[in-house]
Amino acid sequence: MVNWIWLFFIVISVVVAAATGRMDAVTQAAFDGAKNGVTICFGLISILVFWMGLMRIAEDAGLLARLARLLSPLVRLLFPDVPKGHPAMGYIMSNMSANILGLGNAATPMGIKAMQELQKLNPNPDTATPAMCTLLALNTSSITLVPTTLIAIRMNYGSVNPAEIVGTTLAATAVATIAAIALDRWYRHRQPPLAPPTAEQPLGKQEHRSAGLLRSRGSGKRPAT
């Protein structure tokens, strides 16, 4: 879907530029965008390598494992339909721990593995389970202690204090996570709507036949149809 959106933007831009005689501006913007993209990527490499290396040290030191153990009671509360000891629980805790520490690259494969394990528990493979929806909501709104990528981008653009967003990012992601959990709980506990009566058996006939069956059970006679 996203690819079609980008294709739509590109086609519209080219058509409008051709109609207004500004194809040279489109060509120049394409080259400038490619140049800026490469410049930003190379500028971020050293910063991201530093942060990812630092986080890898924390991971090897057992920080992620300890954080996962601390999150275990919360994960059991958020995913009550996942059996205790199931492999999905380990991947979910690792995914949440990596997201909290800003390890997006480490969180992604853990999230994919968690989804694959949750799919094994899915009685209807064509429909997402409540646990899958909860995991997706938590990934989208995860609390982040260290926004590594944002700090790296701010450093690349010469920010005087690139880490000053840590507090506001923590507050924003905390509010987003609370909202996501609240909505997830609400949808989990919402009662499904009653199925409407079929066209072959209208509501009035259903009620009449049900009343007849009740009377027949009390009298021992079969109701008339």
UniProtKB/TrEMBL annotation:
Segments forming domain Nucleoside transporter/FeoB GTPase Gate: 42-148
Annotated segments matching region Disordered: 192-225
Sorted UniProt keywords: Membrane, Transmembrane, Transmembrane helix
Coiled coil: none
TM segment ranges: 33-54, 91-112, 133-153, 165-183
InterPro entries to which the protein is assigned, alphabetical: Gate_dom
A Pfam entry, by short name: Gate
Record protein name field: Nucleoside recognition protein
Organism, scientific name: Paenibacillus herberti
